[in-house]
UniProtKB/TrEMBL annotation:
The name this protein goes by in its record: 4-hydroxy-2-oxovalerate aldolase
Active-site residues (renumbered): H19
EC number: 4.1.3.39
Swiss-Prot/TrEMBL catalytic activity: (S)-4-hydroxy-2-oxohexanoate = propanal + pyruvate; (S)-4-hydroxy-2-oxopentanoate = acetaldehyde + pyruvate
Naturally occurring in which organism (per UniProt): Paenibacillus validus
Residues under site feature: Transition state stabilizer: R15
Single annotated GO MF: 4-hydroxy-2-oxovalerate aldolase activity
Binding residues for substrate: R15, D16, S169, H196, Y287
Keyword Manganese: yes
Entry keywords, A to Z: Aromatic hydrocarbons catabolism, Lyase, Manganese, Metal-binding
Enzyme class: lyase
Taxonomy of the source species: Bacteria, Bacillati, Bacillota, Bacilli, Bacillales
Superkingdom to which the source organism belongs: Bacteria
SUPFAM superfamilies from the UniProt entry: Aldolase (SSF51569), post-HMGL domain-like (SSF89000)
Record: residues binding Mn(2+): D16, H196, H198
Length: 342
């Protein structure tokens, strides 16, 4: 392994994990998870609706608890960890960013589809003005050629992003594809490079290690894999693996293991496994957060969720097009279903 610089871990179970529990976090759950992550010395903890600030809606799923209350509570129980928020321009606005900053968050991640970095300019600029650590988050990175990804990352850097992430939203990338993407960004940017994986093809850990090997230093994980689809790179496992590789994170692995077992496992509505549904996300390159929406549409129309997901992949649906899921299901139900089989 090439020498690796110190890594900065961001825990996403309180944001990406919100998808997996239908955005039903309670104040008590967020407080207990945030407190334990702070105690384990995790540097950044993301707290927001799964689809970012202001994501609570019929389209994406209504939050049980107002996210600003969750953010405020998480900030209040953390002595050293910084709370971060995710914002998708158009879903959330500058107003919510200002509000979150007032509550004491330390980081904002501005997320766009991999070809749409230009819509992040004002949000990145505002985040910098607010003095926040500012991250550009290029979602569905598997959908663009490497050159396009580099171009888009450079835009985010030019707006002021301190770090730019390759986000494997569908868990569709293979390790060599992660390597070529991170290598190209490393060669073209001076910003830090980050990686956010999903485990739909059981490659989150391999992809994360590939990213680190090529120079990514900002890395996401979710405790007990609590994230959309089959979840993210499992944080407590990642920290243990990194320790074995002699790579420093500053995170206490024993405390993370206890948190995973005693606090996060009881929150899970079902274990984070690679089911046929989540496997198809990675296989067809579909946004991980579409899984539960597709399963609900399948029930409603008497379909196999896999056929809905395959069709969404064929149509290259992107985040924000959740309304397409019901449309596709309705069309499939009327046509000579099944159109495809896996
Ligand atoms: C919009 C939200 C999405 O879940 C962001 C993310 O974590 C991803 O694209 O993987
Ligand atoms: Mn994600």
């Amino acid at each position: 392994m090439k020498p690796v610089q110190k890594l900065t871990i961001t825990e996403v179970a309180l944001r990406d994990g919100s998808h997996a529990i239908n955005h039903q976090y309670t104040l008590e759950q967020v407080i207990s998870v945030a407190k334990a992550l702070d105690d384990a010395n995790v540097p950044y903890i993301e707290v927001s609706h799964g689809d970012g600030l202001a994501g609570s809606s019929l389209q994406y799923g209504l939050s049980r608890t107002n996210e600003m209350e969750l953010i405020e509570a998480a900030v209040s129980v953390c002595a050293t960890s910084q709370i971060g928020v995710l914002l998708l321009p158009g879903v959330g606005t500058i107003q919510q960013l200002n509000e979150a900053a007032k509550l004491g968050v330390g980081m904002a991640r501005i997320a766009t589809h991999v070809t749409e970095a230009d819509i992040s300019a004002q949000h990145i600029a505002r985040s910098k003005e607010l003095g926040l650590v500012t991250v550009g988050f290029l979602m569905m990175s598997h959908m663009a050629p490497v050159e396009t990804l580099v171009e888009q990352a450079k835009l985010m850097e030019s707006y002021g992003a301190d770090t730019v992430y390759v986000v494997d939203s569908a868990g569709a990338l293979l390790p060599f594809q992660v390597e070529e993407r991170i290598r190209a960004l490393k060669q073209s940017l001076s910003a830090h490079i980050g990686f956010h994986g999903h485990n739909n093809l059981s490659l989150a850990m391999a992809n994360t290690l590939a990213a680190i090997q090529e120079g990514a230093t900002w890395i996401d994980g979710s405790v007990r894999c609590l994230g959309a689809g089959a979840g993210n790179t499992q944080t407590e496992v990642l920290v243990a693996v990194l320790e074995k590789l002699g790579i420093e994170t500053g995170v206490d692995v024993y405390k993370l293991m206890d948190l995973a077992e005693e606090i996060v496992a009881p929150i899970l509505q079902k274990p984070q496994e690679i089911t046929k549904g989540s496997l198809v996300l990675g296989y067809a390159g579909v946004y991980s957060s579409f899984l539960l929406h597709a399963q609900r549409a399948a029930l409603k129309f008497g379909l196999d969720a896999r056929d809905i997901l395959i069709e969404l992949g064929r149509r290259k649906a992107v985040g924000g097009q959740e309304d397409m899921i019901m449309n596709v299901a309705a069309e499939l139900a009327k046509s000579n279903y099944p159109l495809s089989s896996v």
